[in-house]
Fold this sequence. Notes:
The protein is an all-alpha fold. It is about 70% helix and about 0% strand. It has two domains: about 80 residues, no CATH class; about 70 residues, no CATH class. It has eight helices and no strands. It starts with a helix and ends in an 8-residue tail after the last helix. The mean pLDDT is about 75.
Amino acid sequence: MAESIKQIAVKTIQLEANAIAGLLSYINGEFEKAVDARLTAQRINERFSVDSDERIKAHDSTIDEKRELALRRGINEFLKGLLSESADPTVTYYDARRYAELGNKDMALDALEKSVQGRAFHTAFVKVDPVFDRIRDEARYKQVLRNMNLLDTNN
């Protein structure tokens, strides 16, 4: 049976709340909390975008392993792993925003490029979204804008 609008809205809010909690924990230096919140957001996103109970169980069975790996390798490697796992261009756009907020230019640009390639709706706002102010002078950012015909070819 298809999910109701209310169920989808609740999952979306839970996903964003956990993603924001992870970001705030990271900013406050609470790495373990950041990892746990991000894994919870990832679990919600997987359940949100997948119909298969088998895939959900397979994902859930790797949570402890992912947490241990993240704590051993550090937050940047953990975030890179999450970026490479996400195929949804809307998710990668929001990842780009979060990485830009954290000041991680390379990861922000990696996610933004994926999002543009996937033609996510939100990428139409990339030129005016203030979160990308720190990366506007980057050659890769300008190339993203050129690819979207949002920047003169002379720039």
